[in-house]
């Protein structure tokens, strides 16, 4: 079972993940891969869904990468997905490494801060 990150956990191990510009099935595929690797603030049954507004949908989750639950298996996307990951340098690297077990991952942009970074990752089928 996926659980919310511990409030006393090291904040440098927390990675905020945002997916936008993709369909709910691809969002579900990416979040499922991440949920198999790390504890999350999303419940296992909290599946991405469309809303009826017609506006773009953004899916978010926060992962605690200090604990590895397992490695995701290969997964299939219907189209490439862009993921934004924000957190400590090592934490974002761990998240990227985990995603590379399921997808071909390419870093398409980064913004560096003093102690954390934001990385834009392009996920495609392997």
Task: Describe the protein's architecture and organization.
The two termini are 27 Å apart. Residues 1-6 have low confidence and may be disordered. The chain contains two helices and five strands. 18% of the residues lie in helices and 32% in strands. The protein has one domain (12-124). Strands 2-1-3-5-4 form a five-stranded antiparallel beta sheet. The protein is globular. The protein is of the alpha+beta class.
Quick rundown:
With 126 residues, this protein is of the alpha+beta class. It has helices at residues 24-35, 89-99; strands at 14-20, 58-64, 81-88, 104-112, 116-124. It starts with 13 loop residues before the first strand and ends with a strand.
Pick out the low-confidence regions: 1-6
Spatial shape:
globular
Question: What is the multimeric organization of the chains shown?
Answer: single chain
Proportion of beta-strand residues: 25-35%
End-to-end C-alpha gap = 27 Å
Mean pLDDT score, rounded?
88
Number of DSSP E strands: 5
Order of helices and strands: EHEEHEE
Structural class: alpha+beta
- The radius of gyration computed from the alpha-carbon positions, rounded to a whole number of angstroms, is 14 Å
Helix content: 10-25%
Query: Can you list the strand order of the major beta sheet?
Result: 2-1-3-5-4
Count of alpha/pi helices: 2
- Total number of distinct structural domains: 1
The main β sheet shows up as: 5 strands, antiparallel
Features:
126 residues; alpha+beta; single chain; 5-stranded antiparallel beta sheet; globular; 32% strand; 5 strands; disordered N terminus
């Amino acid at each position: 079972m996926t659980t919310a990150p511990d409030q006393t956990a090291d904040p440098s191990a927390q990675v905020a993940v945002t997916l936008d510009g993709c369909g709910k099935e691809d969002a579900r595929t990416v979040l499922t891969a991440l949920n198999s690797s790390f504890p999350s603030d999303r419940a296992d049954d909290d599946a991405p869904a469309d809303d009826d507004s017609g506006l773009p949908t953004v899916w978010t989750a926060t992962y605690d990468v200090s604990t590895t639950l397992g490695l995701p298996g290969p997964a299939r996307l219907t189209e490439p997905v862009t993921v934004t990951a924000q957190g400590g340098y090592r934490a974002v690297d761990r998240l990227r490494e985990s995603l590379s077990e399921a997808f071909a991952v390419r870093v398409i942009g980064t913004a560096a801060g003093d102690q954390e970074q934001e990385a834009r990752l392009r996920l495609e089928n392997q």
